[in-house]
Fold these 2 entries.
Entry 1:
Amino acid sequence: MEPVEKINARADAFWALGLNQNAGPDEIREAWRHTAFHAHPDHTNGDCANFARAKEAYDFLRREGLTVKGKASGHPRRPKLRKRVIELESADIDACRVLLNTALTHDADVDDTQSETHSTSDADHIPEAVGFYGRNLTYFVSTPVQEGANRVALPTSFLASARQMETEVLNFRSKGTGGGEVVVPENITTRKFPGAKSVRIKFEADQQMRDEFWLAG
């Protein structure tokens, strides 16, 4: 790209993000997150034109090194971890459902004295998507937590080199009903989620919550 063309392309990129050409890295990143969230096809009835324009502009400014604070010319930058969210495949969801139908209510990880059950209920949960940030996992569950005993079936081997996805049922108790987040204890994470550094489960999670997760990274 010729120098004049690059100058024009940079000006167009700033304009697409609603910025002047004196904007710093923090302003560029914040403008991208704001524009990407509000222009996302999920929020515009499927219209992706503005989202695509903003993404192209941000990618250009990123390649130019204008989104990194304190960039040192000539020195390689440390790769930045990227957040991503994937939808669970139907086979994984079915495996979770089968496990809930056959698993015992009691689990050695939680002191749960409820009776055994072999059918799912409102207190049984299956995630619809999982978010990745390095070795940190976040499961998104659309159903709300129920007061008392709850069970959630989770595919656990996303970060392992297993040929077949492993699934586990975790039991926990809640004092209330509704949305919220459960942090899996470190000892259970180490034992049941190979390769994971941390595991979180978000309940009553909708599409907006998933979007906010990846736009925040």
Entry 2:
Amino acid sequence: MRVIAGKFHGLPLKPVPGRNTRPTGAKVKESIYNILAAHCSQMHYGLDLFAGTGALGIEAVSRGVEQMYLVDKNYTAIKTIQANIQKTHAAAAFILWKMTAQQALDKLNTLATPLDLLILDPPYAMHVNLDIIRQCVQQQLLAPHAFIIIETNYDLSQQRPSNFSCIASKKYGQTFVEIWRFEGE
């Protein structure tokens, strides 16, 4: 597993030991960031809510996002993310929180930091993506025209709220990836 492009191009990243974390495949990650490449350098804050290895958030910073919140509740994942952040030699670009997704959203709500990028790749069985997105809109956590990357094992095309447009939608085997853009309330 490596960073695909940007200032950390080629940087090898550690996987989370064990089988509890499902890393995003290189082909999927490359496809996502090729679509967002022109926008990353204009993004100030991003949130990878189920960070796992931190690879998606690290890729975002590599391509120009200024500050990335990486959140995971699993101790082993947090240790892996810490090691991967150290490899970037850009620790100031990352804020790492060991907490649940709900705790992170509550904390962000108190910081009043509008997100330009939200990455949602929770364990497939959770089915929480739409609830999280609705909460982000309700708490005004998304900046105007924020992007959301969603990776699931089910099709979201019929569930997209009307205040989002779909920038891209692709299926890779059993994995569905959609990129949405927030169009406002």
